[in-house]
Every structure is written in structure tokens, then in C-alpha cells.
Design goal:
By secondary structure, the protein is α/β, with parallel strands linked by helices. It is about 45% helix and about 15% strand. It is built from ten helices and eight strands. The mean pLDDT is about 95.
């Protein structure tokens, strides 16, 4: 259905935690690509708590002589017990620079997964870092700027949002909030960033630890505020991606 990329302007609003949570709750088969240039794999060290060995990931994909679309099958690993799978990221920030030539080819390969009934979520980490997957962000059906609603977070997000709009860097830019109302609401953030705020993730550190650190979920986890909010984010992302595609198709036929 779509390639959806998540990124932040600064700090740690929870891009990886949100990306893992969305992937595990996604209603269709989905591949989570850890494209965060900071390295260290928030999936293996975080959700899997270091119990899953690194076997292959983006580095092997970049080094493979095969076509990226074909080689991608060899580096995808499953999230057992779900419809989700993942591609591990770099083990060090120093490796990110070597992926520069991979990003455009990977963007094309990820777009092709749609024909196979596979959705894609990309964890792009923080914007502006060396090795950032800009071509993937630019070609995604929906690219989400994830931000908290504090004044420092919005002060960092605003110039980035201005650049995105001015340079038309993303085909369908949107905002997802973490901790709406702490202190600003969605309409205030949308006005400040001049980008549509499509959903909000509940700020629940204890529940978030299930996705970020592999903590065993409580009995009330599935009905808790975080999971409910992630289901809302999924619905909003799917709807926004469809609208973006229809807009592109409409523009192409004019």
C-alpha cells in the first residue's frame, strides 16, 4: 500500500520506538527498515535486547553485487509472531557514509514492494546527519516528522519544516506528535510548523519500553493509551498516504 518514513528534527522524540510499535501492530505485511544514520541498531539492541545476532542488513545490501530488489530478500528478518519483518541498520555511525549510493536504489526497491502487497516503514532517525537517507525520505508515499510538543522541540522542528516546504523535499509531508498537550495541542503545532498534524502518540514511557527495550508487556498493555494511539497513527498514515497518491495521480493527468 505505501512506503512511510519517520524522522525527527532533533532530540529523541521516539522515532525508533514508534516505528517498531507501528510495525508490530500494522494490519498488513510490513518491512521495517532501520535507516537511522547514528547506527547501533535500535531494533537489535533495543527491542530484541541484544539476544538476536546481527546477520545481515543495510551494509550487506550496499555491498551486494545483485540488484537491490533481489538482494533485499536476503537481508530481511522476521519479527516472530507478527506480520512484520525488519532490515537491520548499521552497527556504527561511521558505516552510514558508505550507504550514500545505496539510498536511491533502495528507494526504488522499496517502492516495488508495493506490488507484492508489502508495506514499508522506514526509521530515518534525526534529519541533517551525515549519511541521512534523503532519497528514501523524498520518494516515500508519506514522510512523517515526529516531534514532541515542547517549545525546544518545536523550535528545532520549525526551520526544518520551513525547508521541507520551501524545497518540496517530501512528496507528502506530515507531522505526528508525541505527548500532545505537553504543552501545545495539535492545532497549535500545525499552525507553527505549517504542516498537517495527522495524529499523536501517547506519552507513556512504561508502555513504550516494550518496543524500545523489549520489556515484557503488562496485562493491560494492549488496551493501554500507547497501543490505542498507535492504532490511530496507523489509520491516519494509511489515509494520508492514499490521499498523497491520489493527488500525485491527479497532477500527472492534468
Amino acid at each position: 500500500m505505501a512506503v512511510i518514513a519517520l524522522a525527527s528534527a532533533s532530540g529523541s522524540p521516539g522515532v525508533t520506538t514508534t516505528a517498531v510499535g507501528l510495525s508490530l501492530l500494522w494490519p498488513r505485511p510490513v518491512v521495517l527498515v532501520d535507516a537511522d544514520p547514528t547506527g547501533g541498531s535500535g531494533i537489535l539492541a533495543g527491542y530484541f535486547r541484544g539476544t538476536t545476532e546481527y546477520e545481515a542488513g543495510l551494509v550487506e545490501l550496499a555491498l551486494s553485487p545483485a540488484d537491490v530488489a533481489d538482494a533485499l530478500r536476503d537481508v530481511v528478518r522476521p519479527f516472530e509472531g507478527s506480520k512484520a519483518s525488519y532490515v537491520a541498520g548499521t552497527r556504527s555511525h561511521a558505516q552510514a557514509a558508505g550507504l550514500r549510493d545505496l539510498w536511491p536504489r533502495l528507494a526504488d526497491a522499496l517502492a516495488g514492494l508495493d506490488e507484492l502487497g508489502q508495506d514499508v516503514i522506514v526509521d530515518a532517525g534525526r534529519l541533517g546527519l551525515a549519511g541521512s537517507p534523503e532519497p528514501v525520505l523524498g520518494s516515500a508515499d508519506l514522510t512523517v516528522l515526529l516531534t514532541r510538543t515542547t517549545l525546544p522541540a518545536l523550535a528545532a522542528a520549525r526551520p526544518r519544516a520551513d525547508t521541507i516546504r520551501r524545497n518540496h523535499e517530501w512528496s507528502s509531508p506530515s507531522v505526528v506528535l508525541v505527548g500532545e498537550g505537553q504543552p501545545y495541542r495539535s492545532h497549535e503545532v500545525g499552525k507553527a510548523l505549517d504542516l498537517p498534524v495527522i495524529a499523536a502518540v501517547a506519552d507513556d514511557p512504561d508502555a513504550a519500553a516494550v518496543f524500545s527495550r523489549g520489556v515484557t508487556p503488562r496485562k493491560t498493555f494492549d488496551s493501554g493509551s500507547l497501543v490505542r494511539s498507535l492504532h490511530s497513527v496507523i489509520a491516519a498514515c494509511q489515509a494520508q498516504a492514499v490521499r498523497g497518491r491520489l493527488a500525485l495521480q491527479s497532477g500527472a493527468t492534468r
